[in-house]
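Sharing a chain and its predicted structure for anyone who wants a worked example. Both blocks are below, sequence first, tokens second.
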Amino acid sequence: MENAEISLISGVFESDDARDLLLGLINQKIQYHQLKNFSQQERYGTVDNQSTSRIKELAQARLNVEEYTKLATSLGCTLSVHARISIQLLPPAGVM
């Protein structure tokens, strides 16, 4: 099936700007998974294990970004940040 590639972030940023940009994305993803987990708990009385796991991963990513941008600030460095999204159409379940 067809793939799509999207350049989400591409540029050189001051450390504070990179921090704000990356933490904004990470925090948005954390909120998405928190809402998804809450919805599953309300509807089915069960935890969404995938979302719970992803929240933990994203929380660690948030700490890594904070640490890395602090290092960049202390060294007086700018940061080159690039993020691409790859999207692939998959056939419906059970269809080959």
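Comments welcome. Helices lie at 15-44, 49-75.
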